[in-house]
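Appendix B: complex inputs.
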Amino acid sequence: MRVFLIGMMGSGKSTIGRILSSVLDKEFIDMDLEIEKAKGTSISEIFEKEGEEEFRRLEKDLLKKLVHRDEIVVSTGGGIILDKENRQILKGENAVYLRLPPADLYRRVTVKGRPLLKEGKESIFRIWEERRELYEQFPSVETSSQSQWETVAAISMKIASGESRVLNSSSHPVSISPGGFKSIGRMPNAVVSRRVERIFSEWIPSSALSIDDGEEAKGFHTLFQVYEYLMDRGLSRSDVLVGAGGGTVTDLVGFASSTFKRGVPLIQYPTTLLAQVDASIGGKNGLNFKGCKNVVGNFYMPSETIIDPVVTLSMDEGRFEEGLVEAFKIFLITGQYYEKFKKLCGKLKERNLAALSEMLEEAVKQKDRIVSMDIRETGLRKVLNLGHTLGHLYEPLSRVSHGMAVAWGLEREMHYFAGLGVIDEQLYRDVSDTLSEIVGLDFPQLPVEEALRLLRNDKKAVDSESAEIEIPVVKRPGEFEFLKVRLDDLLAVVV
Amino acid sequence: MRVFLIGMMGSGKSTIGRILSSVLDKEFIDMDLEIEKAKGTSISEIFEKEGEEEFRRLEKDLLKKLVHRDEIVVSTGGGIILDKENRQILKGENAVYLRLPPADLYRRVTVKGRPLLKEGKESIFRIWEERRELYEQFPSVETSSQSQWETVAAISMKIASGESRVLNSSSHPVSISPGGFKSIGRMPNAVVSRRVERIFSEWIPSSALSIDDGEEAKGFHTLFQVYEYLMDRGLSRSDVLVGAGGGTVTDLVGFASSTFKRGVPLIQYPTTLLAQVDASIGGKNGLNFKGCKNVVGNFYMPSETIIDPVVTLSMDEGRFEEGLVEAFKIFLITGQYYEKFKKLCGKLKERNLAALSEMLEEAVKQKDRIVSMDIRETGLRKVLNLGHTLGHLYEPLSRVSHGMAVAWGLEREMHYFAGLGVIDEQLYRDVSDTLSEIVGLDFPQLPVEEALRLLRNDKKAVDSESAEIEIPVVKRPGEFEFLKVRLDDLLAVVV
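Resulting structure:
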């Protein structure tokens, strides 16, 4: 498969193309660079010395060669679509137009010496007007208000096949499906996060309700919006409700579907990596109430969960890595895929789609194994709290995301147990190195009094006056137990 | 077993005693009347001609005889507790003091010519002061702010054994237990209706939350009160939550327990007859939202449901009968206990406790059979909508209670189907006579346009423009089917 990026100069074809090629595991080809390399001279010089016509001939020749190659991502020259034959060729390919208003384009290109800009600012507007109609014959992605990752995700979604592998989860079918998100377009009753709606708007049904994602939204005020939406749409108990978003949206929609008219069928599209790994299995949902996180909620199984790794490509740096930490935790607990994860870590950080799909499939399978042994979370499932005891200190005191805090907490807990001799120094080093590669480990020292107070209030503390707390520890990958430790001792590793 | 009612003149011993005796299936004995009968003269004359001492002797003789009889409810003379020996005897019996402030007493007795009141208003206050301490040696029921039925219920609760029969319901244990309500006293986390709290205050734990009952309370504002109560009490997932009240309270508490911390164990004490018959089986709960009844809710099975017929004795006239209509509907659908119900109807109207217990046991068993065949209410269970199609017109248009409306609706639906020849004229007559005995059938003619509009909006209408509706009909007791009928035809029987 080949992907051709087209668009004006400055629309980001090269930058996006390079990221896209590592995401899609394809070779990246910049046509301008390729021509320069073949001719041993710069594009400007070809224009000056041999004229634009000669450049266009070289460009067409190269294009004709490229369509006989496979597994490439190509950044084309801005003028490639001027030629009718070129356009014909590109229409038979995965060609995506990176769309950007000319004012934005001008801002981007003025810093560089580009041949077509010699004529000054007006030229870019003139060229844009000339080429606009030709570009718009191609599928496009609007890039002006998007991050690079969002653009990469939007392009990848366009070309993703939507093929899916259905896992035999113990509770309900879970599909791992790159491009599977597009099927949301056929769903009339959908609640989606505003973020997902913005990036993937072309697949979001116009009847969908979009809501805020994030902790603030996760309460009854948003639930009531969802209920009102369902009432307005006259949703009956045989209609399906769809949720698409991060943990907040899937929790809200999960709760709404379980309680609207005493339960309507539900399809979940978790769209953050954390939600895909963490929330997609087990049917847990939750709402915050009066400042208490998840104090309201229940268990409700979706009819189907669709995990599309392409959606997660759009995530901000940091948020994406939270999901990797969660997955790593699962592999550490089960011991399965642990070594593989460590090897793939670099590729996963680059969001390589094949690695991501494989990793997600493994994480979901293993999360399911843990959860199915303890569906109502009375015992075993608590091992998923790994890293949470100290993580719960970093989260408020260092004001970092939950995922980051858990990563730091996990590193410190392992450090503590290695110091006690409960676990191998080498295992601790391994875990620490991997976490460092995923999120970095520049954690601060915590203020001792606040940390102690928080630790005392931890719900795992044997009693509120107790000097001990019971926490899970992985002794070897795949082998864990729960140990009682003294609060004071544990505290020493974070202050 | 014997019950002795003690208390000042005017405290209602005779009236309450008479009702109580029919409730408890015992002979009623009014000691004053008994003495008058034996002597062939009135108490006043005995006082005048033979003196109070002689009367007290006769009274003590009678008391000594009565404690050798069984199955009696006795209304004692007001002064019986003046004698030490009498008090000793009564302390070994079920003796209940009907307590009332002297001002209320005076108001009640001034209309009658009673011997001790010849001295005027002051005397009653003086007598009350003299006897107060003696009365207060006995268990008492405060009657001044209570209806007769509430007093009867409170007395019956005191003497009820709390023995229970556990039914093998398909989903969870249901106990039929006269006096079983008293066990709520051992439950630290309880939500009770204000009404029940007022009448049975001596058994309500001080830690309980009391909330309003009734449709107005059945929404998120009350749910939030319950959540806050549970958070204040630090309820954990291993603690039990208890609900005690009518359908509103059991629905609210059912929903709260199913959604607090993803589900806590629940014990339900439905306290209205309708809730005992209707809501106690099947785990349904519901909340109103934005004017839509029960649009939010789910299915959640209690660990146990305790059905105490004694609590229902306290119900207002009319409200009690709603429960009888619901039970009758169930017997009509299943055909079981249908004939027995018709025979017992008079006793049930009198709230005879034995009949009520037996009827409740049968209704619960049969409701369970219907529900267990269709737990998520997709088909069969809809037969419970019998009478609801036309009932839903009477409820808003005649502003009567749901139970009354369903009774009228059922009568009219049967009338309609008898007219069509779908059911036997005799079956219709039977049903009509029974409903007439339970609630009366003085239904008004409905305004044709409003009735048609409501009927068209019925969720059972095949589509909103449809001229047809599908409704359940019982062709013979125990034999039902669903029939499509024309809206216009059906309407003719109510306008």
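The interface with chain A takes residues 220, 224, 227-228, 231, 255, 258-263, 284, 286, 289-290, 292, 295-299, 376-378 of chain B (CB under 8 Å).
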